[in-house]
Amino acid sequence: EIKEAVELPLTHPELYEDIGIRPPKGVILYGEPGTGKTLLAKAVANSTSATFLRVVGSELIQKYLGDGPKLVRELFRVADELSPSIVFIDEIDAVGTKRYDAHSGGEREIQRTMLELLNQLDGFDSRGDVKVILATNRIESLDPALLRPGRIDRKIEFPLPDIKTRRRIFQIHTSKMTLADDVNLEEFVMTKDEFSGADIKAICTEAGLLALRERRMKVTHADFKKAKEKVMFKKKEGVPEGLYM
């Protein structure tokens, strides 16, 4: 879906012209943290050789009133100037939540920033060389106006990995590790705990660090068990997964 919405319009716009349809302006990626939304956005940019402009939603909410809308305008101005380009706004829920009666200056600033974003999405041609990718962990909190057709035309869910995908992710992240004979990765693949791809990467990294701290060349099953406990504890405590990314 992201190939149809972002990659093909930038690399082969004539396909849409030949069939007589307008390509989507952009997509929103949604799902649990650590499921690969940011990685996919970067991969699409690399596959198209487009300029990749990434901002985090909270960065658009500035200390001084009026800065948020200005930043949004500047972001799209630069995207147009450097086109073909992809505008990637991560954690869009920081500015794109459902509108309500704003009481504080900060709340009003969020709403003004959101309105400017809607204006920018309305203001550029879907046949142009600028595409928009939004990402969120909380799609249910977003303002429906942001997701209406003609602004963001595709919603792509990123679920947590199933057992087959878990197994593959563990294989990828342990492929260059020296594992002891007692390591049984299937125990972690089949666990009832909910792992994201980032969680699995973090477990493998932490297991390797445990062996390294004890000057051991092989990573044991016990290392993986301790690593899993540590990663899951940090996840419950809200420690950012980016620590391992």
From TrEMBL:
Write down the SUPFAM superfamilies for this protein, in alphabetical order.
P-loop containing nucleoside triphosphate hydrolases
Q: Which UniProt keywords apply?
A: ATP-binding, Cytoplasm, Nucleotide-binding, Nucleus, Proteasome
GO MF terms, alphabetically ordered:
ATP binding; ATP hydrolysis activity
Q: Does the keyword ATP-binding apply?
A: yes
Q: Tell me where in or outside the cell this protein is found.
A: Cytoplasm; Nucleus
Record-annotated AAA+ ATPase domain positions: 23-162
Q: Name one GO cellular component term.
A: nucleus
**Nucleotide-binding found in the keyword field:** yes
PANTHER family linked: 26S PROTEASOME REGULATORY SUBUNIT
As for family, the record states: Belongs to the AAA ATPase family.
Q: What is this protein called?
A: Os07g0691800 protein
Query: What's the source species for this entry?
Result: Oryza sativa subsp. japonica (Rice)
